[in-house]
Amino acid sequence: MEKPVHNSKVVCGDIVKIEEGMNIPCDGIIMKAIEVKCDESAMTGETDPIKKDTIMAADNIRKDIEPGETVNSHKIPSPILLSGTKIMTGSGLMVVICVGKYSCSGKIKAKL
């Protein structure tokens, strides 16, 4: 059952629908992705949109890499979404793994 929930009410284990333009309120792992790209510049400094996909999709791409082949970080999609980042394109589902002061953005805020 899908229902809207305020960001402050999201807890670990929740399944969150992600869509274009959404600011990610917590850390999570992608369960389903349709052409998801994320702007992680606020967290990592990376200016290029980062492709996101499930762990299974990333493993399938890894299997196709030839031994000794040089692979850059953009070839294999990441299944991790960080709080404080933004979905640039696509949609999907993620499972929440860290919220509040335990999330990436929460840890940064605590150090400031």
Describe what this molecule looks like in 3D.
The chain has one domain: Calcium-transporting ATPase, cytoplasmic transduction domain A (Distorted Sandwich), CATH 2.70.150. Strands 1, 2, 3, 4 and 5 form a 5-stranded antiparallel sheet that branches. It is α+β, with helices and mostly antiparallel strands and 112 residues long. 19% of the residues lie in helices and 32% in strands.
CATH homologous superfamily label:
Calcium-transporting ATPase, cytoplasmic transduction domain A
Multimer state? single chain
Largest sheet: 5 strands, antiparallel
Tally the helices.
Answer: 3
Q: Helical amount among residues, as a percent range? A: 10-25%
Overall CATH architecture: Distorted Sandwich
User: What value does the average pLDDT take?
Assistant: 90
Structural class estimated from helices and strands = alpha+beta
Radius of gyration, taken over Cα atoms and rounded to an integer in Å: 15 Å
Number of strands: 5
The figure for the number of domains is: 1
User: Kindly, what is the distance between the CA atoms of the first and last residues, rounded to a whole number of angstroms?
Assistant: 38 Å
Form type = globular
Per CATH, what is the topology?
Answer: Calcium-transporting ATPase, cytoplasmic transduction domain A
What is the CATH domain class? Mainly Beta
User: Which blocks of ≥5 consecutive residues have pLDDT under 50?
Assistant: none
Give the DSSP E fraction (strand runs of 2 or more residues). 25-35%
H-E order: EEHEHEEH
Q: How is the secondary structure organized here?
A:
Elements: E1 15-19, E2 27-39, H1 41-44, E3 50-52, H2 55-63, E4 80-81, E5 86-98, H3 104-111
Antiparallel strand pairs: 1-5, 2-3, 2-4, 2-5
